[in-house]
Amino acid sequence: MKVVLISDTHEKHGQIKLPEGDLLIHCGDWTNKGSLDAMNSFLKWFSAQPFQYKIFIGGNHELGLDVGPTRVKKLDLINSFNNLIYLENSSTIIDGIKIYGSPVTPFFYSWSWNVHRGEPIAQVWKNIPDDTNILITHGPPYAILDLVSLSPGEIRDVHQGCEELIKRVKQLKHLKLHCFGHLHLGGHGSQIHREGGTAFVNAAMVDDGHRVVNQPVVIEL
Question: For the chain, what is the domain count?
Fold first, then answer.
């Protein structure tokens, strides 16, 4: 199976040329602030792509898709596209391949699906099935394609991936692919990391200025 991976298109999907493949995966942040118009534009584009299977998750920029008065309306919009598979802390199986997707990322300025580091987010990752073959998360695991640039005087870890996520990933003995985005700079120029039998991909398409700078990543499974 040829898997094509993208993430963090931030309403720039019209600028992206996709290679051929069997399965198209988007790892979240397809909008800037989750407006219905932006969602509809992306979903129409995504639905029209000539892949047998198309899977996507939300990201921290899909505001109002997680909680609040617009959630039901936004889920109804997603569900109106019946050739798409939307995963929200849930699984699907395609050709015997088990795929799990989660939009959750470590807490940062209270965006969508933010969960505090440590035990709260560890409880989220416990729900990833042990027999997962492809894991889609919006954010990266700690120390794998998760670098951020620091402003002068800023003090924080240059690795901003999730510590609890990498712990859970190491427990997944059948994992072939873990794809994500969220941190735009960490993926630029170094989008694939392989460790053991698992390929890790930061599929972010844009840089921090929301300019499309990367190409879709293709993985053969």
Answer: 1
